[in-house]
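Before a colleague's protein record goes any further, I have to sign it off. Would you go through it and say whether the fold makes sense for this chain? Take the sequence as given and treat only the tokens as open to question. The record follows directly below this note.
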Amino acid sequence: MPKAGIIYNDVKPVACRAAEEWRDKLIGLGWEVALATGMGGILGYSDLDKPVCHTTVEQLTPPGFNAEMSFAVVLGGDGTVLSAFRQVASSGIPLLTVNTGHMGFLTETYLNQLPEAIEQVVAGNYQIEERTMVTVQAIRDNTVVWEALCLNEMVLHREPLTCMCHFEIQVGRHAPVDIAADGVIISTPTGSTAYGLSAGGPVITPDVPVLQLVPICPHSLASRALVFANTEPVTIFPANTNRLVMVVDGNAGCYVLPEDQVRIQRSPYSAKFIRINPPEFFHVLREKLGWGLPHIAKPTSVELP
């Protein structure tokens, strides 16, 4: 019996209803179906009293999800998609991402188009687009005290108020660089259209094998976004007397003490997106962000679902 999965945002009634509906429909088509919420991929934040919060990615796989699963459907917004890929990455399960949220930049289709999409996937009429993920670790006394799998970006900054921070950053075997800024972002190409874009970084097409470093509000005209090969690991040494906060993909994080290090390197796991149509990144940029349009406001000529 073929096997499929459904991961959904359980705080959205529309996603909950769709998950139950499509579980029953797939079972009716002869599929074995496992359900899980996207909460399992949200690692949470470490506590000051218990700063060690280390969960390996292999432990995040929901019950019933494994490498024998042909595909899984994700019902939610971009946050649910990020969480879902963290949950299934070690099993290599490809995901059909369905937007029940707002922006849905990472989603392949919409809820009203799901019947046609499922028909194509069940028939095997789809492509798989693989995207780079990175492993983010907080190192204390040569021990990993916190770890997360990241599809978008890692952000390191000070709390609770924005103020200048100092960082020493080493990319691969290159000489370290000193950066004074409100914070720093290490982003994948997928994350280049998220926080990195808002902070002034370039948009990078998903197929380019690079990472980028983006200072947040740098206190220097010389500190600008840097793009480098994703084979180069990155080590960040905070040069501050106060603790910092590290946030990964906007939904997980930990405190970073002055004596800690943050290490980012390409993960052996990748995010596998199911594409019903050939991937067209520029179309997504135009539809979701208005890229290349002659006006700030989106004209009615833009094709929307």
Summary: The helical segments are 13-28, 78-88, 114-122, 195-198, 281-289. Residues 13-28 form the longest helix (16 residues). The mean pLDDT is 89. The chain has five helices and 19 strands.
